[in-house]
TrEMBL record:
Mg(2+) binds at T84. It comes from the Bacteria. ATP binds at L38, R39, G80, K83, T84, T85, E146, D147, F148, R189, Y199, R236. Residues 1-10 have a biased composition (Low complexity). This is Holliday junction branch migration complex subunit RuvB. The RuvA-RuvB-RuvC complex processes Holliday junction (HJ) DNA during genetic recombination and DNA repair, while the RuvA-RuvB complex plays an important role in the rescue of blocked DNA replication forks via replication fork reversal (RFR). RuvA specifically binds to HJ cruciform DNA, conferring on it an open structure. The RuvB hexamer acts as an ATP-dependent pump, pulling dsDNA into and through the RuvAB complex. RuvB forms 2 homohexamers on either side of HJ DNA bound by 1 or 2 RuvA tetramers; 4 subunits per hexamer contact DNA at a time. Residues 19-199 are annotated as: Large ATPase domain (RuvB-L).
Length: 363
């Protein structure tokens, strides 16, 4: 089948609502409020990211010893891993105020100039999704980061005048989920770059126990392990699942979170043992049951699950690929042997999908 084929005569299952995914890594209003209450305030309290924490600790301690502002910091990694939290910790460790904005909010150089000109000395400016900032603002940021100066253009045409504006020393903390989209001139101006990795289950268990204490919940070790194993290596998802399990425990159990309670609660919310939700399983189900494991084009697969192509590619696929359940090939998407096993299915003999899998992954 052509990977770009957009035709399909397959039946369309009920459409999973990607906007309401319990295992989505983006933060909504409720997540932001809870994160504010659960957020650690020092590097010592921050769980996980050992290498980044150790390196960042040296950067901040050295800056404090010199009595200088910290170098500009770039944090990259998937959503929900703690980039915003680390930016606030940087401000707290440097005993400095923090100002938070985002790349999409800065569409003109004047927007950035207004923010920069109002910064205090030593202040931390957190710029989330920095790769989505407009190009004129990006070019203004080069000079601001390097020389602590911006040129404000007054007037238009031949009579326009550039007025240099001196800025107080500040620390820019940039966060991005797509570091490859940052232009090299901007990336090179950061004194420290940290890449945030997905968390191990043991680290997520520590996150859950800490969150449970702050939320005044009773959770045992096995209950925390059950939730951690379904959290996709992401603390934000772990805390979100914890809140939903708490709701179930309060209504259906005695309020105490055990392995059995956690498993029953997450079954209600359709999050399986590997953290797959309805959308993930719909993609795998269509790939296995309707297309015999593939290869199948992305557009055809999207039609089969009743979703937009971008939703399948950007929301479901990354986790399925990372879990080794789906693979991208020049001919289209194929299911791996692990996908058949996870859904309790046996690959049909002598099918293009099975043959493709044997060729890629061995018999």
């Amino acid at each position: 089948m052509n990977p770009d084929d957009t035709s399909s005569e397959t039946p369309t299952p009920p459409r999973p609502d990607a906007a309401e995914r319990l295992v989505g890594a983006s933060a909504d209003g409720e997540d932001q409020a809870v994160e504010a209450a659960l957020r650690p305030t020092s590097l010592g309290e921050f769980v996980g990211q050992e290498r980044v924490r150790e390196q960042l600790d040296l950067v901040l301690k050295a800056a404090r010893a010199r009595g200088a502002t910290a170098d500009h910091v770039l944090l990259s990694g998937a959503p929900g891993l703690g980039k915003t939290t680390l930016s606030m910790i940087i401000a707290a460790e440097m005993n400095a105020p923090i100002r938070i904005t985002s790349g999409p909010a800065i569409q003109h150089a004047g927007d950035l100039a207004a923010i920069l000109s109002s910064l205090q000395e030593g202040e931390v400016l957190f710029l989330d999704e920095i790769h989505r900032m407009s190009r004129p603002a990006e070019e203004m940021l080069y000079m601001a980061m390097e020389d602590f100066r911006v040129d404000v253009i007054v007037g238009k045409g031949p009579g326009a005048t550039a007025i240099p504006l001196e800025l107080p020393p500040f620390t820019l903390v940039g966060a991005t989920t797509r570091a490859g989209l940052l232009p090299p001139p901007l990336r090179d101006r950061f004194g420290f770059t940290g890449h945030m990795e997905f968390y191990e289950s043991a680290e997520l268990e520590r996150v859950l126990h800490r969150s449970a204490r702050l939320l005044e919940l009773e959770i045992d070790a096995e209950g925390a392990a059950e939730i951690a194993g379904r959290s996709r290596g992401t603390p934000r998802i772990a805390n979100r699942l914890l809140r939903r399990v708490r709701d179930y425990a309060q209504v259906k159990a005695d309020g105490r979170i055990t392995r059995e309670v956690a498993a029953m609660a997450l079954k209600v919310y359709e999050v399986d043992s590997r953290g797959l939700d309805r959308l993930d399983r719909a993609v795998l189900h269509a790939l296995l049951k309707l297309f015999a494991g593939g290869p199948v084009g992305l557009s055809t697969l999207a039609v089969a699950v009743g979703e937009e192509r971008e939703t399948v590619e950007e929301v479901a696929e990354p986790f399925l690929v990372r879990e080794g359940l789906l693979a991208r090939t020049p001919r289209g998407r194929i299911a791996t042997p692990a996908a058949w096993s996870h859904l309790g299915l046996v690959p049909p003999p002598q099918t293009p999908g099975a043959g493709g899998q044997q060729g890629l992954f061995g018999a």
